[in-house]
Amino acid sequence: MSIVAGGAWIAPGVAETLRSARRLEGFATLAELKTLVAGADWVPAGDLEDFRRGCEAVRLAQLAALLAAADAGEAWRPERAAVLGWNGSGCAAENRRYWQDYLANGRDLGRGGLFVATLASTPVCEAAITLGAHGSGCYVKGAASTRELAKLCGETLTMAIEIGKERAAALVFAPGAGPEYPDCASLEQLFEEMRYRKWK
Amino acid sequence: MRDAVIAAAGMATALGDGVRENVAALLAGKRAFSEPRHFDGKGVKLGLCHELDGGDGSRAGKLLDLLAASFPEAAKLPQEAPLYLATTVGAIDLLERQDSEAEPADGSDALLKLALDRFGRRRGMLVAAACASGQQAIVLAAGAVRRGELDCALAAGCDIASEFVTSGFASLGALSASAARPYDAERDGLTLGEAAAAVILMSPEAAERHGFTPLGRIIGWGESCDAAHITAPDLSGRHLAGAIRRALEAAGNPAVAGVIGHGTGTRYNDEAEINALHTVFGGNVPPLFSLKGNLGHTLGATGVIQSVVAAELLKLHRMPPQAGLRTPAPGAEKMVSGAARPLGAGAILSLNVGFGGLNSALIVEELQ
């Protein structure tokens, strides 16, 4: 049995939290959103050292995770928390970017920073670094619904992150009993459903 | 919570096809490194399955064919059993061959489709935890079996040796100039390999019902993340030690007869592992061995291979020699040996470590 203890959603120009219903808007880039997040006193400090060199998926994961952790408040305890990447758009674009750069450089040597981004687990791990989350970390693709995703989380406090093109959703699944949440095909949809139900 | 047993297993590696062939080669200390023929490796040696060279289609598809041929028991797997597939970049050679204008091929998705087809599965899940993907896939599958959500599942790992990945590890300065020497004082990096491996995980009752004689039992696991650096491990090994402790606790604190380490042969990985093992076991660290000195670092496949090798070694009561070892690394003197050794009573602890600081500890026990 698990509950959704908090969440966040990012789309172009807007970021929102679930439980606290906070809203950050008017940013044109993720770097600008980072500035807004860093200036918000309700967001806990996070390690964003890799933000500048990270790809878009990494930046979205870091910011969504930070906002969701802030939204979960005291329910978020990073020491044993897991971070789980789920579905989304994968990393085919990052793979292409690394390979084309390698070809453009005469197949001599690749660039390490681009290579690291080719792993689907990289945004998950960068989010774990940002949050100081020391539980398990992995990316899975194929669980068809948020109910199946919750089974994967089991009894572990888990930050689940879904990264798409220019958008991300992060929800904190925590062990415990509470109101049942709707079964959805994506975290973004679950966020929307719960927000419209004015869930608190 | 009920047990999850390894009902059957298969593997295809640079050492050969089949579990027995691979375990015999490990016990003989064989090394299987050669230069690639399917791309210009610039002199680097890899653990290659040369029968995959040439022809059309993805090398990964052909590797899965080898695995399927070495694994006839997979045909007995009930159709409803899902696939948990571990990989780092999947059929990445599809992207290597693509025109830059085309929609980029997703190597992992492509591999999942190939694997679902080869093993006749209706549903599957891709599991990516960098070089800890293999054990992570087993943990997810075994967890579902132990919780009673599934009676059986297929957990597999597959990665090919490609120019894409070889150039990437070269860019990080992680490749050995010759061949990997895990836990050696003079180790200078890892050697990549390619492999596919799979295990059928079942409840004991389902294994009996389907006519399997299980190889071993998964009795516990623990995971953690260093959350420190995207490529380098925490050299103290404290979070890896935490994962090991969690695994031991979950397994009921069994005696540990031996450890199959991640042992890539890089300075950082091996040092972190040695420190973690000292933290957990003090001065009484069990015999340690890494198969990456034999067949290379097979990325998403390595954790699956390790779990199967663990079950086989427990039956044989033997620990393989550490291939490539000349002088044990400081701190590993009492753990590693260049000679095969008897394996005492107890379970085997298997370790995986991945980029991003991902740590996985899995405990395999012999079935009595």
Strand content of chain B: 15-25%
CATH architecture of chain A: 3-Layer(aba) Sandwich
Question: Which outline of chain A best applies?
Answer: globular
Structural domain count of chain B: 2
Helical amount of chain B? 25-40%
Head-to-tail CA distance between termini of chain A: 18 Å
Which chains share the greatest interface?
A: A-B, 48 and 55 residues
Overall mean confidence score, pLDDT of chain A:
94
CATH superfamily of chain A: Thiolase/Chalcone synthase
Could you give the distance between the termini of chain B?
19 Å
Elements of chain B, N to C (H/E): EEHEEHEHHEHEHEHEHEHEHHEEEE
Radius of gyration of chain B: 19 Å
E-strand count of chain A: 7
Q: How many domains of chain A, as an integer?
A: 1
Average of per-residue pLDDT values of chain B: 97
Indicate the percent of residues in helices of chain A.
25-40%
In spatial order, strands of the major sheet of chain A run 3-2-1-7-6-4-5
Radius of gyration based on Cα positions of chain A? 16 Å
**What is the strand content of chain A?**
15-25%
Question: Which regions of chain A contain 5 or more consecutive residues with pLDDT less than 50?
Answer: none
The biggest beta sheet of chain B is recorded as: 11 strands, mixed
